[in-house]
Amino acid sequence: MRPRVIYIGGFSRSGTTLLQRLLEQLPGVVSLGEVCNLWDSALKYDDLCTCGESISRCRFWGEVAERAFGGWDAIDLHEVRRLRLLTDRARHLPELLGNTRSGRLQATATAYSSYYARIYAAALEVSGAEVVVDSSKRASLACCLSRSAAIDLRLVHIIRDSRGVAYSCTKKISRVDSVHGADLGTALPVVTSLNWVVHNVALEILGRRGLPTHRLTYEGFVDEPVRSFRELVSFAGLSADVDTTAFLSDDHVVLGTGHSIGGNPMRAQTGRVSLRLDDAWRARLPRADRLAVSALTYPLLRRYSRLPG
C-alpha cells in the first residue's frame, strides 16, 4: 500500500514549520519534519531530533532506518546525494515540470524518490499512523515525489508576503537541531524575491498539472487559525471535529513532542505557544528593499493576497 503523504511546500520562512507542528498534534499523523535534511546535516553531523536525542540515538528514527534500509549504515549517502544533484535543484524545475514521464530524468527522479518512499512507509509502520507529513518545502523535491508511483502525495502550498520573507531571510537564526552551531541561511532581499517567485510558481504549476493541492497564505492562516486548520485537515482526509482540534484556538496552540528534523526554532517548542502575525518587516525592512521586493514580486504578490488562510 502506498504511503499517504502530506507535503508542505513553500519558500523558506513562510510558515511551513507552523503547519507541520499543528498537523503532528492530530491522531493518525506522524510528522517527520524536513526529510530533505536527513541526507546531509542530520546524518553527517548526527543532529538532534525534536525528542532531544541525536538521530543515531533516537529510537523512533532507528526503527525507521532499520525497516526502510536495514539501518543507517546500509544507506549509500553518496548515491542519494548524487541523485539529488541530478534532480532536486531549482535549475531542474523546467524539465521536472514538463510533461515527459520517460527518459533519464524520470528514471533518476524515481530512484531519488524511492529513498523517501521507504522512509515514509517505515514511519507509518513504526508509528501506526495513517498519514506522513514532510515539510521539506522544496518545489524541486515536490516535483520528484509527484512523479513517483510509490507515493500517494498531496501538496499543501503555503505562501507568505514576499516582503515578510525577504526581511526574515536577512536575519541570522540559529538552528536548534544543530550540534555544531549552524544557522539558517540568509540572503539579500533581491535574491530572495527572485527565488520566492520561482519557487511559488513551480508549486502552483504542480497543482495545475493535477497534483491534489491546498493553497493558503501565512497571513490568512494566522488571522483565522481554527477555520483555516480545519479546512487543511479536511483536505488531508482526516477528522476535523472539535475534539481532534481542541489543542488549537484563535490565539494559541498547545504543542506536544514529536520526532521531526530540520525547521526553524519553533520545531522544538512545546506547551502553550501564542499565535501572532509576524509582520516586523513593515517597520524594519528598509524602504529601498521594500520597494524592490514589491516591484519584483508584484504580480504574484497581488494575486496571492486575495487567497484565504
Give a quick precis of the structure.
The chain is of the alpha/beta class and 309 residues long. The chain contains 13 helices and nine strands.
Q: Tell me the β content.
A: 5-15%
Give me the secondary-structure category: alpha/beta
**Total tally of structural domains:** 1
CATH topology: Rossmann fold
Would you list the SSEs in sequence order as H and E?
EHEHHHHHEHEHEEHEHHEEHH
**CA gyration radius, whole angstroms:** 19 Å
Our count of helices gives: 13
What's the total count of β strands?
9
Uncertain stretches of 5 or more adjacent residues: none
Strand order, biggest sheet?
Answer: 2-3-1-4-7
Could you outline the blueprint of secondary structure elements for this entry?
Elements: E1 4-9, H1 16-23, E2 29-33, H2 41-44, H3 59-69, H4 77-87, H5 93-96, H6 104-127, E3 131-137, H7 139-146, E4 152-159, H8 162-168, E5 173-174, E6 183-184, H9 189-208, E7 213-217, H10 218-223, H11 225-235, E8 252-255, E9 271-274, H12 281-284, H13 287-304
Parallel strand pairs: 1-3, 1-4, 2-3, 4-7
Antiparallel strand pairs: 5-6, 8-9
Helix pairs in contact: 3-6, 4-6, 7-9, 8-9, 9-13
